[in-house]
Write a structure and sequence with these properties.
eight-stranded mixed sheet; Alkaline Phosphatase, subunit A; about 20% strand; 15 strands; alpha/beta; Alpha-Beta Plaits; homodimer; 2 domains
């Protein structure tokens, strides 16, 4: 429906996404949420003067989303229709250069004895060990059957692999027994056109085993989450806006790249992020400004840290909104409540700063968002609302 | 679902539709909305005593509807499935007698020089000129290839055309370059069964050019929005209620006719409209009472006028509700916020006056409607709610 209504103008829309923003009343903090407790005069000032509030449900009622579905839905893609594979997310998170046609996989070093995986995580070997092993593998295994292999170490026993070549398929079973003390498993093709890919992946696994056979603990690798760039309509095309992503964490720049947004260099801090935003403001209509710290604090269950993260963001809000966008959306990709120390299904508080003069006249936090005039909507419905407030949609029907 | 649950009784349901009713907090008027500022003791009295509140979303979140989709959805037709064409809306708005099988088109007088449309609006010639030219054309061009042609002048350079005959199709391209200084365009058939219709329309266009060749400015006509009566299940059949439409503006009587509602004469004012309602009250179960003035004031951005329009309606509410309907619904087809001077995507305030004894105990305006017990629903879901309150729906399942 949106397709036929999109207007071409230079109105700007900014998405200020505080990862894991949503929280729940915290019994240890007077039943406040971090967003409620934070001193955020700039956000609350904008909310009270020209903000409307609501809540977004990332995927569906009761569903806790990962980062992939959380962000896909924010940008108006149905997260149940589209998927960013786990391998893809992993290589994006490691800042690897994923290209169309590449096959990505998550990988673990593991311990194998007599064909049985005795420890899927190789005793959680330290990151430096993983770096050493990855360097060794990279030095010897550059290609299998003409398919280039690129690997990069992650944290602890984890690493990621990109296979680059023609005719690769992601129709593969995991090369992972998924439990300790099960037989070591190679991958198998789930359809005929994945036969070559299965041979390549298993060739790689075999080469790694040969290389590591003298290692005392990490003597094999498990690969899983085989996936390629999703076939997804680029954001720029879908909404006829040039889009720029600004994010300190690689995974979010990666997701933006998957959606066809432009990405600038990694900002060192919020001030540099704002500087990148300013420098590129004239060349784009849509800006995805991602903040990770709220989610990290939520994952740690650290209420004070989450409050501090929100207050830090509040400090840069005047510089961002001062650029004069037609609409600024402040929300999260999902909730990460401190009491739960992880992602959750709770609706995420939403603030739309408007230029229409309308306002709910309320400070921005979960409890006010329940009674905001935007209501509780699905995250995938946020883009149409943002486009409307951005004055980028024509009337439907006469 | 509704189909199998419809009860046959004489319970009455009145839809009091204030066109463009919804608005947003207005910074120039103490952040009130017109509905909030209006002194409307009758509506607020009913709302507080026996009203439940909510909001309706005409088409979808962020989508600004035209009058067609706005009304279709009010009456329970999915506005994304059904469409009333632009030509149809235009002839209805001019109070022309559109019949099944007719082909309707919007038309402009324009200026053509050497085959190029130099001015699509013929210098916006005054209405009297358009009336003169239409009379001239009507006098000479009565039929083309056996197809009757009926034309009627509108405002300024606009007029409308009905083609009446067997085998007409609306599968035609616009006979309009849509921009100045482009070559004059005839229509083309978009499917084979529209070949005859294309010949007829182009024959008409040619005849008009011949007739107007001596005119200094308006020497040709552009036709667009070719459309016929939509194939839509009549309201009366869909809901097993005899339905009467009362509206001062032709377009809304026209939409009602398209839906198979009965229509009485054009009321001169609200009092006559109420009189028509009273006179016909026993013969119908459903009444669509349309008020245009709220939308006009919104389009003008005139807050005080919109307040006044609402207060004027409030004056006739006792006479309407005094008839004793089982349910009276007061809402709009869309929002027309004064600050935006046009239709908008904002949910529309909804009041259902009930006979169950239930009430939200709140005055009727946008802010209270956010927290009303009906919630925020899609307009197409309003009819089931109205039928329920009208005690016209049986239980589903045992």
């Amino acid at each position: 429906m949106i397709d036929d209504l999109l207007l071409s103008n230079d109105n700007k829309i900014i998405f200020l996404i505080l990862d894991g923003l949503g929280d729940i009343p915290n019994p240890s903090f007077n039943l406040q949420t971090p967003l409620e407790a934070a001193k955020k005069p700039n956000l609350d000032g904008l909310a009270a003067k020209s903000g409307v509030l609501g809540r977004i449900i990332p995927v569906d009622i009761g569903i806790t989303p990962g980062s992939g579905p959380g962000h896909l839905s924010l940008f108006g893609y149905d997260p149940m229709e589209h998927e960013i594979g786990r391998g893809v997310l992993e290589v994006l998170g490691l800042n690897m250069d994923l290209r169309e046609g590449d096959l990505a996989a998550r990988a673990n070093f593991c311990t194998v004895r007599d064909g049985v995986v005795t420890d899927r995580r190789a005793g959680r070997i330290p990151t430096e060990q993983t770096e050493r092993l990855c360097a060794m593998i990279s030095g010897s295994v550059r290609e299998i059957e003409g398919v280039e292999v690129i690997i990069k170490p992650g944290k602890s026993h984890r690493f990621a692999v990109i296979f680059r070549g023609a005719g690769l398929s992601d129709k593969l079973t995991d090369a992972d027994p998924h439990k300790d003390n099960k037989p070591f498993a190679y991958t198998r093709a789930r359809s005929e056109d994945a036969d070559l890919t299965a041979r390549v992946v298993n060739g790689f696994i075999g080469a790694v085993m040969d290389l590591l056979k003298a290692e005392p603990v990490a003597n094999a690798a498990l690969l899983r989450g085989f996936s390629s760039m999703p076939d997804i309509k680029p954001f720029t095309e879908k909404y006829r806006m040039k889009a720029l992503a600004i994010a300190t964490y690689p995974m979010y720049r990666g997701i933006a790249k998957v959606l066809g947004m432009d990405v600038r260099q990694e900002p060192a801090d919020y001030d540099e992020a704002v500087r990148i935003l300013k420098e590129n403001y004239n060349d784009y209509q849509f800006f995805f400004f991602h903040v990770k710290e709220t989610d990290l604090a939520g994952e740690d269950g650290n209420f004070e840290e989450k409050v501090k993260a929100i207050e830090e963001v509040d400090r840069i809000v005047p510089a961002i909104y001062g650029l004069g966008p037609q609409a600024m959306i402040v929300t999260g990709d999902h909730s990460t409540p401190c009491p739960l120390k992880g992602h959750s299904w709770h609706p995420v508080p939403l603030l739309i700063v408007t230029k229409t003069g309308e306002t709910d006249g309320l400070a921005f936090h979960e409890k006010n968002c329940v009674r905001g005039s935007v209501g509780t909507i699905y995250s995938k419905e946020l883009m149409p609302a943002a486009l409307a407030h951005g004055m980028r949609l024509d009337k439907y029907g006469a």
